[in-house]
Backbone:
């Protein structure tokens, strides 16, 4: 899937998203706030999410996935289906790119004996993994927005 494309959804994904969407609609304070959610509901009914709504659908999916509600209410198969949809949204693609970037950075450590490894909290839901070898010290940050190389020092040994 390319950026700027819409999303085709499956019935299971629609059935998972619709109750959460209805909750968002019920909580919206006025017609203006409800409008984008009504547009998403209409798109869900057509099983086709236009490009301008993929970010909003991704946000709804993310709430369901991170809260554990999908697995709890519908089971692991439903969770996997929604995860598959989320990965096609702008946020899902951003996270995938951050993981690819982190994996590329971590390749520098491959084959080197680790001198130390540690994890520290950088804030709520933000953590940093530090790896030290004779040749480098690397800190990789994990946070809801994705994963990124926080620091790289060559010749740190």
Residues:
């Amino acid at each position: 899937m390319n950026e700027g494309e819409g999303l085709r959804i499956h019935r299971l994904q629609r059935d998972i998203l619709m109750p959460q969407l209805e909750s968002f609609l019920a909580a919206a304070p006025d017609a203006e706030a409800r409008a984008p959610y009504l547009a998403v509901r209409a798109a869900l009914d057509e099983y086709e999410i236009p490009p301008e709504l993929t970010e909003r659908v991704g946000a709804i999916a993310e709430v369901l996935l991170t809260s554990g509600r999908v697995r709890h209410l519908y089971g692991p198969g439903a969770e996997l289906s929604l995860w598959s949809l989320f990965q096609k949204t702008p946020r899902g693609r951003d996270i995938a790119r951050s993981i690819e970037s982190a994996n590329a950075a971590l390749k520098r450590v491959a084959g080197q004996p680790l001198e130390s490894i540690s994890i520290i909290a950088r804030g709520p839901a933000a953590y940093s993994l530090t790896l030290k070898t004779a040749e480098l010290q690397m800190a990789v940050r994990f946070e809801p927005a994705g994963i990124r190389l926080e620091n790289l020092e060559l010749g740190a040994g």
Notes: DSSP finds six helices and six strands in the chain.
